User: Fold this.
Amino acid sequence: MDQSELSALQRLVADAALRERPLRDDASMTERASVAIRESARLSSVDQLDIYREQFWARHVHSLEDDFAIARHFVGERVFFDLVAAYFVAFPPSSLDLRGLGARLPDFASTRAPFADDAMLREAMRFDWAFMEAFDAPRGTPFDPQSIAGASEDAWPRATIAFDPSLRPMALAWPLDETRAAIRRATAPERPSPRATFAVVYRGAESLHCATIEAMAFALLEALRGGAALGAACEAVATSHGVADANELGPKVGAWFQQWTANGWVSAVRV
Amino acid sequence: MGYRERHKIPDLGVGVGFRAPHHARILGALGDSPPMDWFEVISDNYLLEPPIPLSKIERLRERYRVVPHGVSMSIGSVDPLDRDYLARLKKLVTRVGAPWCSDHLCFSGVNGVVVNDLLPLPYTKEAILHVVERVKHVQGFLEVPFAIENVSSYMTYRASTMPEWEFLAEIAERADCGILFDVNNIYVSARNHGFDANDYVDAMPADRVVQIHLAGHTDKGSYLLDTHSDHVKDEVWALYRRAIRRTGGVATLVEWDEEIPEWDVLAAEAEKARVVRREEGVPWIKAS
Assistant:
């Protein structure tokens, strides 16, 4: 056996593992397996090779079912498996890490039935993946309250805020935070009715969290994350939400800021 | 002088894997950290991009000896070794002060496709030459002793020209590396392929065994599957007893990665291994 034969043997096994259907259903694969693998007292050549195929699918589908638990819950096992099978044809696993396995799945699913015609499912895919992104985000620096201790009142409108890199604010059309929590409690929630929900997925010290906030707080958070100064962001939010005077937002903004810092969302304030 | 002696490989006693359901307990968040001789960490979890922060390993290290163990090096693949992966592994190994590190004698993918499995190699002279060069490179690069682990297998290649134990031993000898001897994998493969597991244990170059793995497996009817999801079976305990008699005092680890039980169940399984060691005259006494 030279290097090219070793290479061919490895390609056979890898190719077999990625096959969606049992190998014995494929005459050419059965033939290739019998050439490369010795039958045992209990298993044929192709059935031995099929153990690796079964393990591949069990491991990878299980991982993606866990990562996209909401969509998996609503479409069921068969439809989800078909989605994953098509996904692996387009994007064979190329990473040692199962964490990143589903990075392209939300976009991929959005073009396929039933996801293409179901906005809730598409949103669920994006929402679930936000948790993976939050988990994998770089560590931010913790906020130091002393950094703003000497800030003068009139400097605040020019202040800009840096947020923890794990933050994933998501304006949802369905209360998928509740749906996700129910699934994780191993209950079987009904399909949710539409309800605007402003969710922020983030990573705490030891685990992932999702908080829902009011629409104005969400708008301000997004403006500030976009780099706007605090004064300009408040004015823009007041205008978009029909508040006549941006100063009326003051007490609310103070309360939101306290909550955001308590949650660990704020990394730094530049005044 | 044997491999363990040359490399001053310590006998760490009996440890378990550092797995998420037990992190809080182990790191003292629920009271005092429990007694355990040492922990094995899956190195790959700390090498990926973006990396999982090492803070937990740092805290673990403050309390216990830590040894990294990998599942993704793909030492037997015909694809080139991943230099970036090795560079990150070296950093981890250095950071945790590992006395050795290990990965599996297998391939995990080819042509850039990653199957994320421990796929067996054909037991041939050519495969030995292929793997030996790669193990030498890895061990030289990491600058710590490197051990290769025998895997459970479910198929027998027609191309194989020798039993698995000869394949493993010859690679270890030619590459001058250590062996992570997984006695559960031996039992699983022996049952699947119809050889005598005792022959495997008896043929091992005992001085190269730096660590022993114990684990549970699942009977799938027509074959055994290495699942790490249950207690160590009696037949595997018997093999362990036979192995430790040959190797003498070697660090032993109980793997339990699926359906992970309560800490006390896992700790009791480790205690069983300590009992076997004592009964076989190789008790581990923690250095003061």
The first helix of chain A runs from residue 3 to 17. The beta strands of chain A are 37-38, 160-163, 168-172, 197-203, 208-212, 266-270. Chain A touches chain B at residues 1-3, 5-7, 9-11, 13-14, 17-18, 35-38, 40-43, 45, 47-49, 51-52, 55-56, 59-60, 92-99, 136-139 (CB under 8 Å).
